[in-house]
Amino acid sequence: MPGTPRKRDVHGTREKLVRAALDLFTTQGYHETTTPQIARRAGIAEGTIYRHFSSKEQLLNEIYRAATRLFIQSIKDTSSTLPCRERLERIAKSWREIAHHSPNAARLVFQSPIKPLLDPKSRETETELKAEIERIVAAGKASGQVRIGSAETWAAVWLRVIALMLERTADKAWPPDQPASQNAIEAAWFAIAANQTSPSAAPTTPPPP
Amino acid sequence: MPGTPRKRDVHGTREKLVRAALDLFTTQGYHETTTPQIARRAGIAEGTIYRHFSSKEQLLNEIYRAATRLFIQSIKDTSSTLPCRERLERIAKSWREIAHHSPNAARLVFQSPIKPLLDPKSRETETELKAEIERIVAAGKASGQVRIGSAETWAAVWLRVIALMLERTADKAWPPDQPASQNAIEAAWFAIAANQTSPSAAPTTPPPP
Amino acid sequence: MPGTPRKRDVHGTREKLVRAALDLFTTQGYHETTTPQIARRAGIAEGTIYRHFSSKEQLLNEIYRAATRLFIQSIKDTSSTLPCRERLERIAKSWREIAHHSPNAARLVFQSPIKPLLDPKSRETETELKAEIERIVAAGKASGQVRIGSAETWAAVWLRVIALMLERTADKAWPPDQPASQNAIEAAWFAIAANQTSPSAAPTTPPPP
Amino acid sequence: MPGTPRKRDVHGTREKLVRAALDLFTTQGYHETTTPQIARRAGIAEGTIYRHFSSKEQLLNEIYRAATRLFIQSIKDTSSTLPCRERLERIAKSWREIAHHSPNAARLVFQSPIKPLLDPKSRETETELKAEIERIVAAGKASGQVRIGSAETWAAVWLRVIALMLERTADKAWPPDQPASQNAIEAAWFAIAANQTSPSAAPTTPPPP
DNA sequence: TATGAATGAGTTTTCATTCAT
DNA sequence: TATGAATGAAAACTCATTCAT
């Protein structure tokens, strides 16, 4: 995770702690994970947790933000000159990379049931991630690649479908670069893309003869 | 209110209990909700919970299954002779109805982070819901309306997008029959529909000049 | 049990209640038995218990006293003109009869771990039982049949050994009139009888040559 | 007790806990004793109980086994070359010592109404105690010192009478080395000893003239 | 007299957090 | 900085007892 050395962590205690907590929170759930468990897995004493984090909840939030920043960084690393579709696809694929080698980070950000435990700062980071996608989608809309409708909506839709792909990737159910994964990325795009032939036009009001 | 009918509420205790628990579980989360809170909101004594449900967890599961069955019934109530797209649209709209007047039921089924707490019976009910959609999608695939790819995948994709629409409806962020909601239903379909013009063909391999 | 009709108990509800409680208290223990269990086994409603007994504890005490009186009556029914040994033997045998057909009554009086729950009245009844035996033992002592030492002690000793016999009889481990049972009754007597040859005289100070 | 310093118990917390629980269980009974009471008497916090024992029941069992082992050890410490009567007498006397200075240990093992709460391991320990006595009695039978009849029966009879003596000793009702105590030990032996003159031969069938 | 749903005080147990070492 | 025993507030759950019917 990107530079987080608040203080010199000679023994990597904080690092071990973060890894242990991330593993346990995403496998067992936050409430099902106890601080003794975290300490045991990190190979440290229970009290030591509180030298690095003020509470279990803060530990969760810290991890959440670190993981989310990972995905945000990924967005920033893709060329902003690409057309909307390509850019989103690049992002999806680099996220898939992350989900592949850090499945728990992906789970924490995209699937974990921890919403009620996030503090304002974490929610802000979460919003930042969404905003980045939204900006890209808005640009796509401006250039006619994305369907009419709120950019916020299309960003949310795209994220939902991509979240599914990431979960399956994290679960090793879909190996990267396999059709299923590829299909899902395409599906996410088709969900929001313009130029739909819109086959059977208005379903509720069939065209009169 | 006149009178104080605190006691002797022979019929309706369970009902009040279910409503209180549903409200609290979906607003605060399961773990954040305590049995005293449930009892207080239901206007009953804490011990009374256990005359109706053997545990807090069983209460959750009972509510979950009741809510899920609501959505399953909705599927069964739509004509099975309709083409895939129309059928899915009908389902989405009737689900939206439910989400509109029973927002918490929708939250419990589609957004709630309670997966690890569901018992086998509940998981079966959950599977049933997914299977119903999957069957419809499979039929759509057979008739060429749905894109190639696993029906399970497309059902999951469709459900994710619809879940977003239901959450927003439950949150009163999207009034039913307004463009946003309508757009999301269409997006869910376009994500899985065949006959995509597939504009910029293969994204990884851009067309050579 | 001997005439206990405080009020006309037309449906034998009290009777059923007593039997159910006796069964459950002696098989499962007092604390392990719940009032719903008692009611269910008696075939009555939970609240009905409190029409006949003011509390679960009073129910226990009432049963305890009824059972103890059964054994006391047995003593009074044996001829007081018999020699000590014969009288005790007759008592032991009639008690064995009771233990055989009312095992739970025997368990309640002789083996059950309910001491801390008995009220003063019950303790009095318990004392009465012991006093009856003590009187007989005292008479035996007076006529030289029982060894020197406190009559209270010898009564207690005799009761302990007989209690063992009654427990085994109640458990159907020792059928009545079989050697084991007979041996135990004799052992109870030998424990307290005078005229022991006192074989190896003083155990701590072996006789010098 | 054998050196049991599993972990450094700097403050003797476990020790205090055991003593408090032993006191309360034997004076009030297991069910009548609450965990707050135990903690208060031990001068510790309630939660601390569970750092040393996984449950109230386990605490009871641990104490029970420790106490029972005390008495078993006492048996093993007596010379096995002694004649049966002398050996049993030595055991009784050393047990009396224990009952004198650790009255609650004696109560827990010999009088306590906790049978239904003992776990298999504890029952095994209980059986071990009985088996030790049974072995000695069986040896006595083999050498003609103990009456005919099952060794198991005679061991049980002897134990019952000795239990009475131990209870009275624990209650400080019988000071050790006083006649009452001595008499009871003798009574226990006479109950099972051979060579009884068996005065009035067959009690049920009095000798015809 | 009988009922049984409702009660609520009381129980055991958990676990994030503290603090003397 | 690290430790881990001790803490105590709060959790889920039990069950003898009450009372409107």
Could you characterize the architecture of this molecule?
Four copies of one chain form a homotetramer. Chain A has 209 residues and is mainly α. Helices cover 63% and strands 0% of the residues of chain A. Chain A has nine helices and no strands. Chain A has helices at 13-28, 35-42, 49-52, 56-76, 84-101, 103-110, 120-142, 151-170, 179-192. In chain A, helix 5 (84-101) crosses helix 6 (103-110) and helix 5 packs parallel to helix 8. The longest helix of chain A is centred in the middle third of the chain and has 23 residues, at 120-142. Chain A is elongated, with a radius of gyration of 20 Å. The N and C termini of chain A lie far apart (61 Å). The A-B interface holds A 28-29, 31-32, 83, 85-86, 89, 112-116, 147, 149-150, 153-154, 156-157, 160-161, 163-164, 179-180, 183-184, 187-188, 190-193, 195-197, 199-200, 203-204 and B 28-29, 31-32, 83, 85-86, 89, 112-116, 147, 149-150, 153-154, 156-157, 160-161, 163-164, 179-180, 183-184, 187-188, 190-193, 195-197, 199-200, 203-204. Chain D binds a DNA duplex (21 and 21 nucleotides) through helix 3.
